[in-house]
# Entry
Amino acid sequence: MQPLSNRTYGFTDSVIRRMTRISQQYDAINLSQGFPDFDPPREITDRLAEIAASGPHQYSVTWGARNFRNALAAKQSRYMGREIDPNTEIVVTCGSTEAMMCAMMTVVNPGDKVAVFSPFYENYGADALLSGAEPVYIPLRPPEFSFDPDELESVFRSGAKALILCNPSNPSGKVFSYDELLIIADLAKKYDAYIITDEVYEHIVYDPFRHTYAASLPDMWERTISCGSLSKTYSITGWRLGYIIASGRITETAKKVHDFLTVGAAAPLQEAAVAGLNFPDSYYTDLRAKYTELRTIFLNGLRQIGLPFTEPQGAYYVMLDISEFGCADDLRFCEDLARIIGVGAVPGSSFFAEPVNNLIRLHFAKRSETLNAALERLSGIGKMKK
Ligand code: GLN
# Structure
């Protein structure tokens, strides 16, 4: 038989999602794929129960239900510091996963180069290949995960049409400083490139770090496609509610792409999530406090176990250095970790363009009891030494 499409050969299934299946297989505490084990806010789930009876149960407007767009525009206008038009500047998508894919298909042509910082969230490599683009990687160097502006400039000079910017970053936990973002923005303007952001951790940032929206930088609105999601902010990763926010010129095209990709995000879930979008600012302060507490518990526990890691400035991941185990294959290490120690992690190699096999990623979006149980298990990690 003829081979299947060429575009599918350059990547495997998601190792992040595969590690969830492996965790389930071994009954491991799953700190691999980043999602919470605590409930979403009651206001949202109560509203969902009402909507089960009252509807809507049919399609919403393809680029998002009116109530949802209005509530999202009001909330994001407050945080992004500019008036977002709910009719012309928002496209509601099935998670930020679709938002990113839709943004890529809206911006790049087959053969275009797309700049990606490495380490990067696994999806971006596949997104680039699926949209026919060639990813070009710029290393973020630990411990600060800083980039070399000359290296970034050379990628733009070589013709990169867009840069994917995950801020706060998964998996490194880096929060790009205002000055770093200005360097990126200046280069994007100088070389007439777009910035596609992934800002799903916008509200999960630890003191003293602060998140700056790339779209809010001087003269960046017209060339930034901001992708976001409700998944992490309201603990509803399974609802698959994401969005693109961009200028009308961009969303007009993104709406077409989205329309033919998925038609629309789930109508009842959009309606229920309005309850969350209408929360007062204190909700986001409390969310930050909650994650700060979980981070403290987890990092303190890891310190006692004694493996090195870099403290995340935002998001909810930690990269643990497993150099002392001298393993050649970090995927195999993670499979063994799930089977022998009972904790699910993601091999670092899933996130790097460079060859890396001495890191594993763990997440701490779990109840404190779950984190303590995982730490207890991880204290036996010495068993993994050959
Ligand atoms: N962002 C989460 C992670 O990196 C997972 C997201 C997903 O699987 N769609 O683990």
Notes: Residues 16-17, 33-34, 97, 121, 170 surround glutamine (CB under 6 Å). The chain has two domains: 15-40+282-380, 58-279.
